[in-house]
Ferredoxin (Thermococcus peptonophilus), 67 residues
Amino acid sequence: MPEKIKVVVNEDKCYLCGGCAGVCPTLAIEVHSTGWEFIQDKCISCRICINACPVGALSAEPLEVSE
Ligand code: SF4
Ligand code: SF4
């Protein structure tokens, strides 16, 4: 199993193009005119969004999983 991640956005870089939301297979990212939103419960830690962002605004942080 890949490491579980939390996807975080650098709001200074993100221009809300919606590309990451478009490639996420589980719809774990929503991009609205008001901002970028990550839904942890839907994320499968595939990292596709991180590689897809044209300006490198996304990064992964390890997710603390409670035992
Ligand atoms: S692909 Fe990058 S720039 Fe576009 S909405 Fe997602 S994080 Fe923002
Ligand atoms: S890591 Fe994969 S599942 Fe999680 S938000 Fe990014 S594209 Fe979606």
